[in-house]
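Could you please consider the sequence and fold appended to this message?
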Amino acid sequence: MTEFSQLGLSPTTLQAVADTGYTTATPIQAQAIPVALAGQDVLGIAQTGTGKTAAFTLPMIEKLQSGFAKARMPRSLVICPTRELADQVSAAFERYAKGTKLSWALLIGGVSFADQERKLDRGVDVLIATPGRLLDHFERGKLLMTGVQIMVVDEADRMLDMGFIPDIERIFKLTPAKKQTLFFSATMPPEITRLTQQFLKDPVRIEASRPATTGENITQHLVRIPISTPKAKRMALRALVERADVKNGIVFCNRKTDVDIVAKSLKVHGLDAAPIHGDLEQSLRMKTLASFRSGELKLLVASDVAARGLDIPDVSHVFNYDVPHHADDYVHRIGRTGRAGKTGDTYMIITPADARSLDKVLKLTGSTPKEETLDLDWSLAEGDEPRRDARGRGGDRSRGRERGGESRGGERGKGRGRERSPRPEREVQGAPAETPADTPVAVTAEPEAPRPRRERQPRRERPAPEAAAPQEREDRPARAEHPQRDQRPERPVRGVQQQPERDEGDNRVVGFGSDLPAFMTPPGSRRS
């Protein structure tokens, strides 16, 4: 066992660590802290719950005590995949750096830009951020990363799962080439290996435990149920929670919608539970986590957004409501319990549809969980409650028919809630013509006469372009054929009180006497 006093930390930092109640370093801390203090790059491979946060937080505090921060130019950078993990790292800095004058800022989504920009304008020594919000501030011109001396990437494999690797590559290129990098990951898939080879310089590889292995102080259980319906799984979950001595526990689901449903089911049956997933507002997520950490909340129903990196002390149980899609997620889920040398129990509900996913988990971990049975009346769970339709209502879809309307499966063309007259029968050729006089068949068989206002006039053919001009001149006197056009008042001539009349016989204009204006005199009758 290695004491913190043997790792080369200053008395101020050692006192801050002692105030948190820790005196003995974990394997990853004992190996990573001296290497980081020496200024070398670190490639740390360790599962969650091994103390990785203190492994990079403590040496950063030691190295940043000399120097000062400039406005909008942080001296160190910590990149985290989720808001919860970033907030946890910020809380660790607050505990360990309380005896120093170092400043830090938290850049995560769900918080106003204005508050974060004010902290950046004052200058911070440590900047803790998620990739998206960090790049948002950079693109707004509120942040420069040219002064970064130490860069930390935490939960790199989780970054890969969430699609943040392109953002991480861009952030690496925005920071100085001469910097110290501390890179931590629970697993090393090929994409992460490529990233470390590209941006780390001769890193010291520290492997505290075999990748994708579970802690020895965690007891794993498998609970097989004969039915795959969600109702049966919720019955099994409630039975496990009530049977086990649960101080506080986390229930993991694969989908966000199931998180809300399971949390509501537990609350309806008298169990203290609350949901947490990525679609909830940041303030509600932080409030829920604070209640769970303080012990006010007994059960936390979560998606995998809470599976990585959350340092929640004294979690006694972890329940896998769903078998995870990725086998690595199982390791991170059950890593929420059995932390800091304490023991924990985990349960995973297995249905007949989970055989393939279970094989992947057992093959990756190499463990053999204990199998448990539940004595429940599974006939009560054979039929699940009806699914909700597009309008959010459950129950029978024929409810619209009871109101007088047709549902989606009705005939096309029928209105909703409107009474339609019966469709008239068509007259069939060859049928007898003896039909009662009061039947509408004769009316419907013959087409109705078109309405006069919709009757179209035959289209007139336009003359050829070259013959249009002379034909138009010849047709001008024939305007009397269009009485509507003749009713339009013609524009009066300036200075003339009486409208001239044109005599079509001799083509002379009459009505002005001898006072005929010159511009109205026909060209053939002008006097010289």
Q: What stands out?
A: The CA atoms of residues 109 and 133 lie 6 Å apart. The domain at 218-378 is CATH 3.40.50.300 (Rossmann fold). The two ends are 131 Å apart (CA to CA). The longest strand covers residues 218-224.
